[in-house]
Amino acid sequence: MSTDYSKELNVALLAVQRAAILTKQVFHSHAKGTLNKSDASPVTIGDFGAQALIIAAIKANFPDDEVVGEEEAKDLRENADLKKTVWDLVKQAKLDDDAAEKTLGGPIESDDRMLDVLDMGASQGGNKGRIWALDPIDGTKGFLRGGQYAVCLALMVDGDVKVGVLGCPNLPIDDSAPLTEDLGANATDSEGKGVLMSAILGKGADSRPLTRGALKDATTISMKTVNDISSATFCESVEAAHSAHGDQAQIASKLGITKPSVRMDSQAKYASIARGAGDIYLRLPVKKDYQEKIWDHAAGDLIVREAGGEVTDAQGKRLDFSVGRTLKNNKGVVAAPKAIHGKVLEAVTSVLSAKQ
Ligand SMILES: Nc1ncnc2c1ncn2[C@@H]1O[C@H](COP(=O)(O)O)[C@@H](OP(=O)(O)O)[C@H]1O
Ligand SMILES: [Mg+2]
Ligand SMILES: [Mg+2]
Ligand SMILES: [Mg+2]
């Protein structure tokens, strides 16, 4: 096993690239096979298929690694039609490059094996050993609505994130494309779209086109220097239930920001600030008891930090990925370039303490 994580990164990049072939196919089809999960959030055939493909690739290369994946096979075990639909998609999703496809272990052998592989995402996480955090489609609501979504994969070792990859099919390839409101709605994966970002701890962050997932073609990315916070661009969730739009508007106004926020689904927010298309990402809790999921943050947290940012919770604590499937030690997320993070956090504290 490599100690510089280059093999892990290579596998993760290719696995995310392959999974995105599947999600893009579903994105363009009318029937997305949407089901509602027990917490009333949606899951689609794209989520199931992408999770199976990525776990298969991880297990082919690192059989002893564990995976904390968002989805499970239960619904497919109970519904033969759904299982067949997902299997038809999974069978077809292949990289053009034979050598790369071989690196991922080739296709999954059978539909039953696909279900077993999907269920290998049941790790409870923790602070010991090698554990991957996988969100096969982050921003499922955005995916369904034609907004941003991301295929997210990160490797943690002893609870610390070492490798992070975000595949964003609907973000511009061009790192300098401005972050505009229309990237949040009516997003497409037409020409010029589709970016794959990554980071290895201590080695910086990169971006490359999603169609070229290998290590080649990478450009280094970094956050923008913000000389005047009042001109910063801040982004937040589209879903008002996922973060407190009202509190975030007050924080922005305290910082003198007059531009409206850019709302977009998924970890595309982390990706966008990491490359300086936006500057600040705020995610303040709506419900006190909601615990953020590690797969919603692991890759983005590392990519932003490696691009020169700081990511904390609303109290200024680093996100703690070592305590299970959720970030139970943290509330909220505040991500910004290192130089201004302290000022942003001051505004967060002042707005939140005024609410008590
Ligand atoms: N009440 C809540 N507060 C915060 N996040 C929530 C939430 N309910 C669901 N989520 C998470 O928000 C994620 C999407 O984040 P965003 O709002 O930034 O697009 C969802 O990921 P999935 O779409 O993978 O399920 C889900 O895990
Ligand atoms: Mg979900
Ligand atoms: Mg998610
Ligand atoms: Mg998801």
Automatic annotation (TrEMBL):
It catalyses: adenosine 3',5'-bisphosphate + H2O = AMP + phosphate; adenosine 2',5'-bisphosphate + H2O = AMP + phosphate; 3'-phosphoadenylyl sulfate + H2O = adenosine 5'-phosphosulfate + phosphate. Gene3D superfamilies: 3.40.190.80, Fructose-1,6-Bisphosphatase, subunit A, domain 1. GO terms for biological process: inositol phosphate metabolic process; phosphatidylinositol phosphate biosynthetic process; sulfate assimilation; tRNA decay. Keywords: Hydrolase, Magnesium, Metal-binding. The keyword Ion transport does not apply. Mg(2+) binds at residues 70, 135, 137-138, 296. Its EC number is 3.1.3.7. It holds the Pfam family Inositol_P. GO terms for molecular function: 3'(2'),5'-bisphosphate nucleotidase activity; metal ion binding. Converts adenosine 3'-phosphate 5'-phosphosulfate (PAPS) to adenosine 5'-phosphosulfate (APS) and 3'(2')-phosphoadenosine 5'-phosphate (PAP) to AMP. Belongs to the inositol monophosphatase superfamily. This is 3'(2'),5'-bisphosphate nucleotidase.
